[in-house]
Amino acid sequence: MRSKWWGWGREGESYHLPDPERFWSYVRARLGKTEPTERLESPSEIKLSPSGLSDGVVSELSAAVGAQSVSTDAATRAVFSLGKGYKDLIRIRRGEVPNPTDVVVTPGTEEHVLEVLKLARRHGLAVIPFGGGTSVVGGVEPAAGRTSITLDLADLSRPLAIDQHSATATVQAGIMGPDLERFLNPSGFTLGHFPQSFVYSTVGGWIATRSAGQNSTHYGTIAEHVQSLHLAHPDGLLTTPSVPAAAAGPDLVQVITGSEGTLGVITQATLRLSRLPEYDDFRGYLLPSFAAGVEAAREIMQAGLSPSVLRVSDETETESALAMRAPPTGFAGVLEGAGRWYLGRRGLSLESGSVMILGFEGTEADVKHERAAAKKILSRHGAFSIGKGAGRAWQRGRYEAPLLRDTLLDHGLIVETLETAVPWDRYLALHAAVREAIYEALGERSVVMAHLSHSYRDGGSIYYTFLAPQEKGAELEQWERVKTAATEAIVRNGGALSHHHGIGADHRRWMPAYLGDQGARWLSAIKTAIDPDDILNPGKLVPPSTEARRSPAAADDG
């Protein structure tokens, strides 16, 4: 099930604030008074330009996939024309869909996908793959000026097989996270891939964006899980070999992983699995500073440990999280008071420290061994255990944060996220530089927080969240100013242009600066060779100065 059209989660689902007054007092103290905003009641209220497809092309599509699988309905087209980024939600809430898709096609088979792609090439139509629609970087919005087909992959969502000997599973690309795990778990397996969008995103979307789940520090990113895949293209179906490893030139699986629909439509994948863990241990730790937490994380990774989750919140995020929980009462309140006194004696504070969530999964013996080794490292950095309760609370709420974004939008706040990754030697400098760039772009009435979400031997990710009062009437210009300042600070300080959100349309103008001119030309050359008419998700990933041009013959839509 996809999330609601104007936000995240199912209709009627919202973020539960345990103590709303405490939270809003925190917001008012930092951001001042906010003004509620209105939004449309239904996507049927959105006014779109008519579909640019001729009746003849619609008839051809209907003949190829069935009339019931082709929709030019305005409300359907509107919902399938935007993702879930801040810019997307601001526009769709007020009924602005500047680049609507012209038709939504829901293929029921791989052969249907191929037929649609061949038809699109004949008529010069752009094709945008649409899985769960959770892109936050403009990955599913049609390119301006192009007549477009959005390919809804919801019906290509079946699990196909499990190979228990090889520990792999083959599934159709439209399968969503919960359905995948329900298929795998009875056989004792898990993919171990749990991005925050897990409930509403698909395997194909994860592969197309080179996704990293919240447990990827232990299980690996999606790029490590893909053994083989099917890629539908106007010329036919590319099927990569199903082998554990090969030295047969550049790995085509890795070329396709992260290609964001610009090289074809991923329709099927064979994935490497892990055994379901028999035991887990998730705990919270309080450290004196974010710097201490980052250094402890580096040592944990370089000691060869394999935590499932290693998440370190900076001081601002730690303070914010505290404001979102209900204060304990009764005996629990007495215990917390005593705990705060004890922390103070150790030079620690919940208001000025840094919280780490550290989780291990596996056999009980392995988990206990790794936790003991990590505990020695943490002790050297002044960490204090705040118990399993903090770890369980994080596990319970791990998918809920985007629901709070909807509430904040309703109250007239800009709330957005962005992320990067950087080697350890530049980690704290980049963290500070990007934070300062965001503050400068937003002004004094703002909150900028961050956390380390994924760790490697050589570095880690930084995930930023920021909020401020919206500039009424200039909400998108405000977003653009902050996005530009933050992204330029990331590139200038040697960070990844994206760690796991992808490039889409929002980041692609920085690709030459990030990849270098030669790298940008290589990427463009791959796109041009495979898609010379630029019909495959145009306007995404490939740098705009070097992207492929459509041939004049491709302009006729029939």
Which features would summarize this protein structure in a list?
7-stranded antiparallel sheet; globular; Uridine Diphospho-n-acetylenolpyruvylglucosamine Reductase, domain 3; about 550 residues; Vanillyl-alcohol Oxidase, Chain A, domain 3; 19 helices; single chain; Uridine Diphospho-n-acetylenolpyruvylglucosamine Reductase, domain 2
Question: What would your notes on this structure say?
Answer:
This protein is of the alpha+beta class. Among the domains are: 41-152, Uridine Diphospho-n-acetylenolpyruvylglucosamine Reductase, domain 2, CATH 3.30.43; 159-275, 2-Layer Sandwich (Uridine Diphospho-n-acetylenolpyruvylglucosamine Reductase, domain 3), CATH 3.30.465; 279-324 and 331-397, FAD-linked oxidase, cap domain/gating helix (Vanillyl-alcohol Oxidase, Chain A, domain 3, 3-Layer(aba) Sandwich), CATH 3.40.462; 509-555. It has helices at 20-31, 55-65, 74-79, 86-93, 110-123, 177-184, 203-209, 216-219, 222-225, 252-256, 290-302, 315-323, 330-345, 364-380, 388-397, 401-410, 427-442, 475-492, 511-530; strands at residues 70-71, 103-105, 126-130, 148-152, 159-163, 168-172, 189-190, 226-233, 236-239, 265-272, 274-275, 279-287, 309-313, 354-362, 384-387, 413-423, 447-452, 459-469. β5 and β6 (168-172) form a beta hairpin. The radius of gyration is 24 Å and the shape is globular.
